[in-house]
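We store sequence with structure; for instance:
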Amino acid sequence: MKTTQQLYEAFAAAFPDIVSEPPPLIRASADSKVGQFKGHLNSVGFLAGYSCSWMTKLCYLMCYTERGQAGMDNAYLFRAWNTWALFAYLLKGDVDGLARNFSSLITHANKQYHNRLKPDHQIEIAKAERFISNAKRRYKKKIDQLKTEVGYGKHGRHHMEQWGPDIHLIEMERDKKINERVELIKTLQEKIYVQRALRAAGPMWRWMWSGDLVDATHAMAVRKASAMHPDTTAWIYTRSFHLLQFLEPVPRNLTVWLSEDEENTEIAQQYYKQFPWARRTTLTNEDDPTPSTGIICPENAGKFRTVIGACAKCKICSHGTKEEVHFINKKSKSTYRRPASETLLQITA
């Protein structure tokens, strides 16, 4: 277990230019899996390792936030500034200040959420359906009138050849306008589905999509900020089991998941018995058989066409609908992995 001071010293050694500047405010992230829509700033993250008090070499080397786009320089630097801002609160033991910073982020995420909610589009659909019905009658009348004017029924083939192209043009115009409204209705119906799913889920917030609870100040600020937004469903995964006590009393809108792997399974079980309100997540190797307990994360299992908004669609973790979830440790040779920090590897030894 690493103290706040040990983690800060490692961070300061790795980022001397950053800690020489005044600490900024912590900023939220728009994580593709967690966001309820594109650009939704409903999560917060810090640098893995430097903000993980119970980090092990295994979890650091396997951490997905060090891979792919999350491990690229811009994303990494963003989290580095967030980590400096976090340490500024933690070193002073400023629970209230940190909670206020977190609360402002949740408030903004919720504002985005409510701005995204639109009317149910039913009125627009009804208008489009009326247009289609009226268009069919209007164009039928127009075609019938043309046929009457040219004696379409009396003179047969001669006038069919003469005026048929005009009728065809009218029919093409009719079909074009009707098809436009049909496509509009389809689009609106899709929006209705999305809107209703958004309303059903309610506003959501993910704690530490990268990093973990550092100390008691951090845990108490998470609990306090969650309680300040009782209508927002929040969730957190943590390996910092020794800090669970500082999340009590756990707000009703916060779901806490113990993050387990082969290195900490036994101690996780002990804490699970001590804090039965927590739930369990386990890292499962890709070539392992299907777990006998719990379920595999639907996004990991490929149940969604895209990772965008996967957590918001699933809601197992956010709303705590299961007691145990397994995540697959996928072995990908093609995914970029940020070079491991020698400093972090030394303090995990």
Summary: The chain has two domains: 4-117+201-348, 122-199. The radius of gyration is 29 Å. Confidence is low (pLDDT under 50) at residues 154-158.
